[in-house]
Amino acid sequence: MTSSSLFPGCRCSHLFSFSCKMDFRHKISRQVRQLRERLKAVTKPGIDTPTLTKYCLTCKNLRLSGNSWLRCDRIEYSARLGCRYCIFLLNALKHFNVFDDQHPLHLCESRGSYYLSPLFKNVELELYTPTGYPPAWDGIAQDANPLHAVLSGSPQTSEAYEFIRSCLRDCDANHPECKIAGQRLPTRLLDVQHEGAPQVTLVETESLPVGHSTTYVALSYCWGGQQSLTLKTENLEAMKLGLMISSLPQTLQDAIAVTRALDQQYLWVDALCIIQNSPSDWEVESSKMASIYRGAYLTIAAATASDVTQGFLSGNYRETNAWYKEPYHEEWINQQDCSTILGARLKYGVFGHDDERHRVSALPWNLRGWTLQEQFLSRRLLTYHAYELRWGCQKKSACQCRSDLSRTFPTCYRMYSPTYGLVTWRLAREQWRRIVDDYTARELTDARDKLPAISGLAQVFQEDIQSPYIAGMWKNELPLNLLWAASKTKVGYAPELYIAPTFSWASISSPVDSLYRIRDANTAFRKGWVSLARVEDTCSILDGKDPLGRVKDGWIKLRGYIFKATLVDNENNGQAYCASTKYLETRIQCDTWLEEFQATNEHGDVERSVRRMRQPSVITPQDNEPSPSKIKGGAVGYLLLIGYNKGTPYTFFYFLVLGLSSDKPGMYERLGLSLYYKSEKKFEKFKSGLIAAADDYKTITIV
What we know:
Strand order of the largest sheet: 8-6-5-9-7-10-13-14-15
Shape: globular
Strand content: 25-35%
Number of strands: 30
Number of helices: 19
Radius of gyration: 34 Å
Helix content: 10-25%
Structural class: alpha+beta
């Protein structure tokens, strides 16, 4: 090949060409040395320096049409060269203490906003121009939208209220799924009067003018004990005449203040709108929770207050939020030679508030049983969080720290409300499972509220599941619903009062875990599940007027394979047991601590059986610790084969562990759950042997 073919238009020889290349490299080396000398004379970043380059190859003068990756050392290098954009980025990174020369930075543009995100840090810097100044460049974000305002100092500032109003305006205008359809007003509401009025009045909504369009705000909060003032039969008429705001606990005073500030006239508060000493009124009104919270214009959640006396408007967000830092600003000259301001503010990154979930779950409001359905039933929820205000509706989520939770994960971070968008019955069943797991980990002041405090959610789910409801269980899915287990770390006594039949998760005080998963019709569990127990009959006897509330008795009749077993203590744990049959030995996940007693079986014979341990009449600190086993070897129990889940590489068999009923001869009570697994190769042989080894195939009643 000739030199001309290597270098078109050039007639030089190969040797001359090589010499030219070497001269060029020496020339570049001299320029680099000269440039390094010039850098020593350049002023430090942070000082108004002249721009030495028209276009920066590092930051591209922040004219982006997508994503790019930068390194802090390159930004620092270009800043020393005099790039004013890199100078600003460097100063902002150091201001927020996120400068990291070990990892790259993600620089991107999204809908006019520019974001700089340090890798492995769940924060990002957003570049913007404050309201009232010319844009630093065309298209940069400006604070025209109050949702982009800096974090307010407290929940009572004008910025905080403007955040709320802007969320409401946006939702009213753009979210048809959040509209209230066919509203039914609660029986009673508080008329909060006008700003500055010293009192509020209780209103019977049936007395409001016919056709009168009425909206109301609902309050979700923690009682924290007995309230000093509640609605009772003896003060009902007096409260209709007027109630001094100063006599109310602080949380209720704060709720009135917010309702007035949002130009709403009515407020619903359970303590003042339900007659607390009237069982009949309480039962009727508590059964309306679904319509009350679904029909509210807005629900206010006082998330930080563990007691009604604490209030939620007195906090200082900037003092309590160690993460927050004031925005960084620099004077700037835009392309039109106009003086302006370029700013950067720190926000949570694309994972939103994911890194604070352990703190959020510990908020008092998130630990209370009643508030779960109040949250999930609400169409729009305003949460007074520990560090900021947070908004959630069926379409979007927003927070005062300006994290754009929909920019990267548009569906994951909207308000989690499973009562809206239950498009399939399988989805409804899966959501119910999640709710039960969450709900049972929460606290209730009155254990008898275990079913009433979730009846509003049950009402909504029943519309989609289309199944009879039996003390927290769905009849159409009963075999799967029975696959729950008590938390291994929080097993305790059986409740002193009757709450629910033993087959229901509501019958114990411990958190539970549902062992089945039904995310959609094609999940491995749904495809592999085979039920071997047949539901023949069910019964749930109500204790009150709420059809999905308290029960005073109940039972289910199941037909299946029964295995008589002896319970054997686990040598390493006095409250762990194994059930031993003639075919297998399997460990038991107990619902409560267990004890032995003399029981009468269905044939009238007395035998040693096992039941849930009753709570002593007098509790000592030692009684809250696992006591030595009260089961002697040889006590009789029973296993009922519910079904199996065939999968790869193992198949799991599920057994209900039962004991004879202590007060209903011939019937059974649930003691726990047991799982036994076999490899895929041994499955068929084991299943055949298991069924052949059953002591009986019959119908039993579990109470």
